[in-house]
Amino acid sequence: MFRITVNLMRKTARMLIPAGVAVLIGTAFIASTFLFGNAMNDSLIRQQTAIYAGADAMVLTDLPEHPTDAQTDEAYSRTVADYHLDRMRAVEGVEGARAVTVADIGLSNGARHATSHAINTGETSLLPVTVTHGDRPVDGHGIALPERVAGQLGLHVGDTVRVVPRANAAGNNAGNTDESRDLANGVEARVTGLTDDPNGAYAYDGGASILSDDLMAYANGVTDFDQVAATSVYLDLDSQADTAAIRRLLPRYSRLVDRDEADRLAVESLSANGTSVVTTFLMSFGVLALLVAALVIANTFQVLVAQRRRILALLRTIGADRRQLYASVLCEAGILGLIASLLGVALGIGLMALLCATGVMKTTGAPMRLIVTWPVIAVPVAFGMVMTVIASLGPARAATAVTPLEALRPIELTETAHRGHVRTVLSILMLAVGIASCAFGVWQTHLSAVGRESLATDHYPAVLLAAMGGCALTFTALVVSAVRWMPALMRGAGALAAATGPSAAIAHANIQKNPRRVASTGAALLIGVTLVSAIATGAASAKTTMADALATRYSVDMIATGTGMTEEQSRQVRRVEGVGRVLDAPTALRHVTDDQGHGIDVLIVGIPDLDGLAKVMHADLTGVTLNDHDVLMPRHALSGADIDFGRTHTADFAAGAGSADTGSTGAAGASGLDLTVVQADYRRVSSDHDAVAFVAASHFADGDLTEQGRILLMTADPDANPNGVAGVIDGVREALGAIPDANVTGPIAERDMWDTSIDAMMALLVGLIAVAVLIALIGVANTLSLSVIERTRESATLRAIGMTRGQLRRSLAVEALLLSLVSGVAGVALGTLFGWLGSTMVFSLYGTVAMPFEWKTNCAVLAVSALAALLASLLPARRAANTPPVEALAEA
């Protein structure tokens, strides 16, 4: 029987191709998902551990589970000297030791300025960045610059650059006039080399400069490198290293761990990055793709059984029993599943290898590598074979029902009535549980969003999982019960189409003859369209919701701060494409205490009038007045805490330790500046200060406040710039390039990050789900092919009484359109609801959730589905139209 099965497969190989392609695509999807997860985890782990460079061991902080403030202060206030590096290097087996110190520096070369994150030098094997040109600095104020920074400053190896510590270092020496002056003016450093960050150790900072020990000490405001704060030590050890001797040199609350342990801790820390969640999320789409493939496979084997009915009847005649026929169909499915799954795995590995080799997958700051593990091969192959065999069970049972007399009779045009009471009850139960789970998740998330106690506050992942499970149950229930409700929708749509002509009337009649097959094909399309619509709706909701949330958290589109800003530079900023209104104002930093005793560092901004401020702020300032003795303050600090001046309505703005002009006198000095507080609901003008307050500019002109810097408050329209948000930000930065400490921030950058991430993920997922739609459309072709086989006599009769070939083709085209459009519209409706639900669960914690309807995407999906369905109907229609009536009647 096995030989007969193989021969039958060879004879009908062309008919097996659609099912094989469906399995191949689904298994390739799952294999690619595993490979993507492996590559992402590997990339993120390498990026996370790239800071260790070639270290074999490292010293990490090891505090008790509930440390006291004193223990925490001691653990995080260590200097290089506390680690006894010279004694460590003298221990047997220690080939290198590097204390980890950092600084943020400003760099100047004439009129060009830049900023950079800096690390200290050390043995080459222990440096997390690579010196690509020149050498690492050793001493004598040497520095190796990132290639990007060197290009920005126009520097090469051997040139000199002025290094200025950032504000954190300046504050350490505020009491020493000479040192403070040196820190403010900077020192000349020699560029010894250029660096690259191939593994993304400092991807967030755009790379890192390497400083010699003396220059690192200067950047940290101390006279000797041993006095620089150090967070840990990296060690280069050989196999015979005396680790016990190293441990005896460690300060309290430290421990020595080997590289494997450090990597393990890094992997655990990656749980917050959601790599496993991403892999699981993508895997779910692979499983759905194979579920769609299962529907296609079932239809394909129905076609095969229909075509082989005479062969099967002949086999029964010569002695084959029902069990052998049943086993033959299942064996055929198993062989098909194995071959197609292996090809799918090979395709998935090939595609991922191509993406990794071309650098397309470089999305995490480090290049992705192809990591093939056993699940990449075993899981898709096993799942593909099992799904193929399961999908063939129904057709296999149909094969056993073939009798020898079957060869003498045509196939019945309608299916026998079958009451799936168990299926109906099961789908109702799943639907009820699914809706209840969704409602529970939304309820708990809403309670958490409004600040009330709920499970989502401490167990949000569990609540989110409950809602996702509810969506899955609801959708599964609808797919399982599709045989009940989808044919009814088809009949309604067909009745409308039937009025357009005889071809449509015949299509309407034909589509009602086998509701189970119609439901199976429609469900395959329903899954794909629902997923596409859900993702499009979720993405649109995410963009709108996050844009609104950012608008409420930031009242200004963009700000730029810096000292020495001139009117000419302000005019250059106004000329940048995409920059709208600009308010140029002086600033001073002050400290204030509210009625509840909360101390707040406040950036005071001098404005000419309230109308000018209202033009650049997204805040409701209706009814707010501001005179010479008032200060306008927000109701909430940067942290979100309330700022309360409800009783006194006045505040003493003292020049505290956070102020840069601590030596000033008068009202702005130690005695402070008493102002009447006026509060309004505006948020986070700047992310660098607890709050931003506004006063009349006359306070700066009269000397009540000393100007310490300037701020530009800007409105921005990224669409007006050819390069979008990036073009606006880069244009403003270029206009302020002559200011060493210029800093450009604002929500449009954060909004651009969200939009870019959402667009990238949406493009990826829509592309992946297009696989499911493609498989579903193969199912449409299979369904129409089976319809042609079953209606051979009917088609011949219609041709004999005068129906033209064109009318016959049109009837099949209308049938395909009805299948695709009805399933598509149902999928769009369900997908939109699921998208709204998902957005509510994820984004209600950030603000009011937007619930848009994605007309563009949904209409495009419906149009593509309709066009693809028409294309799928071409071959079956051609077969039906080209068969002569006499031959068809004889064949039937």
Automatic annotation (TrEMBL):
<feature type="transmembrane region" description="Helical">
    <location>
        <begin position="12"/>
        <end position="36"/>
    </location>
</feature>
<comment type="similarity">
    <text>Belongs to the ABC-4 integral membrane protein family.</text>
</comment>
<feature type="transmembrane region" description="Helical">
    <location>
        <begin position="761"/>
        <end position="789"/>
    </location>
</feature>
<feature type="transmembrane region" description="Helical">
    <location>
        <begin position="425"/>
        <end position="443"/>
    </location>
</feature>
<dbReference type="InterPro" id="IPR050250">
    <property type="entry name" value="Macrolide_Exporter_MacB"/>
</dbReference>
<keyword id="KW-0472">Membrane</keyword>
<feature type="transmembrane region" description="Helical">
    <location>
        <begin position="812"/>
        <end position="835"/>
    </location>
</feature>
<keyword id="KW-1003">Cell membrane</keyword>
<feature type="transmembrane region" description="Helical">
    <location>
        <begin position="325"/>
        <end position="351"/>
    </location>
</feature>
<dbReference type="Pfam" id="PF02687">
    <property type="entry name" value="FtsX"/>
</dbReference>
<feature type="transmembrane region" description="Helical">
    <location>
        <begin position="518"/>
        <end position="540"/>
    </location>
</feature>
<feature type="transmembrane region" description="Helical">
    <location>
        <begin position="281"/>
        <end position="305"/>
    </location>
</feature>
<feature type="transmembrane region" description="Helical">
    <location>
        <begin position="371"/>
        <end position="393"/>
    </location>
</feature>
<keyword id="KW-0812">Transmembrane</keyword>
<feature type="transmembrane region" description="Helical">
    <location>
        <begin position="463"/>
        <end position="483"/>
    </location>
</feature>
<feature type="domain" description="ABC3 transporter permease C-terminal">
    <location>
        <begin position="284"/>
        <end position="401"/>
    </location>
</feature>
<dbReference type="GO" id="GO:0022857">
    <property type="term" value="F:transmembrane transporter activity"/>
</dbReference>
<dbReference type="GO" id="GO:0005886">
    <property type="term" value="C:plasma membrane"/>
</dbReference>
<keyword id="KW-1133">Transmembrane helix</keyword>
<feature type="domain" description="ABC3 transporter permease C-terminal">
    <location>
        <begin position="768"/>
        <end position="885"/>
    </location>
</feature>
<dbReference type="InterPro" id="IPR003838">
    <property type="entry name" value="ABC3_permease_C"/>
</dbReference>
<feature type="transmembrane region" description="Helical">
    <location>
        <begin position="855"/>
        <end position="875"/>
    </location>
</feature>
<protein>
    <submittedName>
        <fullName>FtsX-like permease family protein</fullName>
    </submittedName>
</protein>
